[in-house]
Specification:
about 280 residues, alpha/beta, Rossmann fold, six-stranded mixed sheet, three-stranded mixed sheet, 6 helices, elongated
C-alpha cells in the first residue's frame, strides 16, 4: 500500500472517531441536563418537606444572662425553617459576635433539630469605665455579659487606660494581668493593681490598707512570691503595714507605726536571704 491510500484511511478513521466523540459528548450533556432538571424539580420539594422542618433547638449555655430563646433568635433559628437551610457557620458567627461569648458551636441534627452550644468568657479581673464596671478575661478582652453590670469579687485593674495609644493601653493591661496571675500563683489575694501617673505599678492586697510598690518595670514572678513571704513574716499580718517597696533587689522597705519599725525590719531581715530577697536584678 502506497502512502496516499494510507493517508486516506487515516483520515477516514479519524473522522469516525470524531463522530463517536461528538455523539458521546452530546449524550453526556443530555444526561446531565436531564439530571439537573430532575434535581431542580425534586430538591425544593425535599427541602420544603415538613419532615425536615425545624421543630426544636437544643441550647446549652454556661451563662445566665442569655436564655435559650434569645440565643436561638440571635443565631437565626426559627420554628418552621428547613434544617437544610440552616447555615451553621453564619449562626456561629452571629452568636460569637457578643463580647462575652468565648466560643459558639451550632450543628444540625436531622431530621428536625439544631444543637447550639455557647460558652462564656471566664473573668479574671475587672475594671471601671465611664459607665461603670467591666469584666476582663485572661486574654485581656474587656466585656460585659449583655447589659448586666458586674459586681464580681475580682481584682480591679486601674490606671492602664491612661495611655493615649491603643497599643500602649493593651500593653499596660496585659502587664497588670500578669501581676494578677503571679499573685494568684503565690497565694496573695489582690484587690487592685494600679498604675499611677508616673507609670509605677502598685498592688493592694486584700485585708488591709497595704500599698505595695512594684516600680515601673515590675517582675511579678519574682516580686509576688517575695510579697507573700513578707506578709507571712509580719506577726500581725498585712494590716500592720501601710506601704511596702519591693523595687530593691536585696531588701523590702516597709513603712509602719514607730513602735513596730525595728521589730518588723528585723523579722524581714532574718528571712531576706532565703525567702524575701531573691537573687539579683531589679525586683
Amino acid at each position: 500500500m502506497t502512502l496516499r491510500p494510507k493517508l486516506r484511511k487515516l483520515r477516514t478513521d479519524l473522522a469516525g472517531w470524531s463522530r463517536i466523540v461528538v455523539i458521546s459528548a452530546a449524550c453526556t450533556v443530555a444526561v446531565c441536563a436531564s439530571a439537573f432538571g430532575a434535581y431542580t424539580r425534586i430538591w425544593p420539594a425535599v427541602v420544603g418537606h415538613s419532615y425536615f422542618k425545624l421543630r426544636s433547638v437544643k441550647v446549652r449555655c454556661n451563662s445566665a444572662v442569655a436564655g435559650p430563646s434569645m440565643l436561638a433568635s440571635r443565631a437565626g433559628l426559627f420554628e418552621g425553617t428547613s434544617v437544610w437551610n440552616v447555615d451553621t457557620g453564619r449562626a456561629e458567627t452571629a452568636l460569637a459576635a457578643a463580647p462575652w461569648v468565648a466560643d459558639a458551636r451550632v450543628s444540625r441534627r436531622f431530621p428536625g433539630q439544631v444543637s447550639v452550644e455557647v460558652y462564656r468568657r471566664v473573668p479574671v479581673a475587672a475594671t471601671v469605665g465611664a459607665d461603670g464596671p467591666y469584666l476582663i478575661d485572661s486574654e485581656g478582652v474587656i466585656y460585659r455579659e449583655e447589659e448586666q453590670l458586674p459586681f464580681a469579687d475580682l481584682p480591679y485593674l486601674t490606671g492602664w487606660d491612661q495611655a493615649g495609644e491603643r497599643s500602649a493601653r493593651i500593653a499596660l493591661l496585659r502587664r497588670s494581668l500578669g501581676i494578677v496571675k503571679s499573685a494568684d500563683t503565690s497565694g496573695v489575694r489582690v484587690s487592685e493593681v494600679h498604675i499611677d501617673e508616673n507609670g509605677l505599678y502598685w498592688v493592694y492586697p486584700e485585708g488591709g490598707k497595704l500599698a505595695v510598690r512594684l516600680g515601673d518595670t515590675p517582675d511579678p514572678d519574682r516580686q509576688l512570691p517575695r510579697l507573700a513571704a513578707v506578709m507571712a513574716a509580719i506577726p500581725r499580718g498585712p494590716e500592720a503595714l501601710t506601704e511596702l517597696d519591693l523595687t530593691y533587689p536585696d531588701r523590702a522597705v516597709l513603712r509602719v507605726g514607730k513602735k513596730q519599725v525595728s521589730r518588723v525590719i528585723s523579722i524581714v531581715a532574718g528571712r531576706s536571704r532565703r525567702d524575701v530577697a531573691g537573687e539579683g536584678g531589679r525586683g
